[in-house]
Inverse folding.
């Protein structure tokens, strides 16, 4: 190991964080070493613990350090509603922005046969089993309306077909506050086709 | 600890890195947990080691994990030149932008009596001792031209007065009030070449 080894290693490790360039990583390393070693020690401790102990919820597949996540174990969530999302971060976004009070199911991606992501990788067998649980009344698809996302939604629709479940998806259209002229054509066409009576 | 405890702790710890907002910290945490646990483990390991083992060079006061840093122990650096900087990161900037091949001395700040930063905190006694080492011929002040920086430069000028040292400062092509580590390399190289006798 060279003399500047550990400092350079620290900068290189920080650069593996998404969105950090070399200047930012260097600035962070020097900031921690010169002004806030406690923050650095705390980050090292929490990071190590998180990488080892955080796994997937056995029920909804979101990230948690317990067998079952806080939402799945909560008695205050409505078990008749199930929202299907791609990523754990989608749950955070929905919890912050909406008053949805049901449960979630995390796919962990979208169907993409070319990348080797099939129904098994997304836990769709487990999702199909949940579709037949008696307390469930509505499943809401909150999947990005990309080509792969739409294919995934279609596949899940087929899974729900022989249950007496109500299946819905969040609305696709022009985002609130968006200028029509800057919205891409695909979105606009989709929003037109999906127009609703006033 | 709540259920989402460890994940939230990780996001909070990442937020203590300078320049990271809540959204970026969250994105980084999810990225590491879902796609790159090895990077997270490596960062935790290197961070812990760096916080414990990186100290100050006994000769130039820069950050190093050894008693004496790579530059101070190198036989290829010119011991007749000493560049005086505020921060270890200034050394990185100068090494990258210029062909300076002498040694360094890191003050660790600027004289600021109101903040309790006096000559002792900047190691100026050690610097004065180096001014009288026989092999030293020129000392170059590379201190940010802020009010406090200029006062610090003046104080160092007084220290060097009774030595036979040539004292210079980098040219003030560096914009007044600017921080050295954010100046572009070309300006910095220009200022280095244009250093003037004090």
């Amino acid at each position: 190991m060279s003399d500047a080894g550990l400092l350079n290693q620290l900068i290189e490790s920080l650069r593996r964080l998404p969105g950090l360039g070399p200047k930012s990583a260097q600035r962070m390393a020097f900031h921690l070493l010169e002004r806030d070693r406690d923050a650095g020690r705390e980050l090292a401790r929490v990071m190590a613990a998180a990488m080892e102990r955080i796994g997937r919820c056995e029920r909804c597949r979101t990230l948690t350090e317990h067998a079952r996540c806080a939402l799945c174990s909560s008695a205050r969530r409505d078990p008749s509603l199930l929202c299907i999302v791609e990523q754990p971060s989608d749950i955070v976004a929905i919890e912050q922005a909406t008053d949805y009070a049901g449960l979630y199911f995390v796919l962990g991606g979208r169907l993409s046969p070319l990348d080797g992501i099939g129904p098994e990788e997304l836990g769709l067998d487990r999702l199909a089993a949940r579709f037949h649980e008696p307390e469930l009344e509505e499943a809401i698809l909150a999947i990005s309306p990309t080509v792969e996302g739409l294919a995934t939604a279609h596949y899940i629709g087929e899974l729900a077909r022989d249950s007496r479940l109500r299946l819905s998806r969040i609305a696709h259209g022009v985002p609130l506050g968006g200028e029509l002229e800057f919205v891409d054509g695909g979105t606009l066409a989709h929003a037109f086709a999906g127009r609703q009576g006033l």
Summary: The radius of gyration of chain A is 22 Å. Chain A touches chain B through 53 residues (CB under 8 Å). The longest strand of chain A covers residues 78-85.
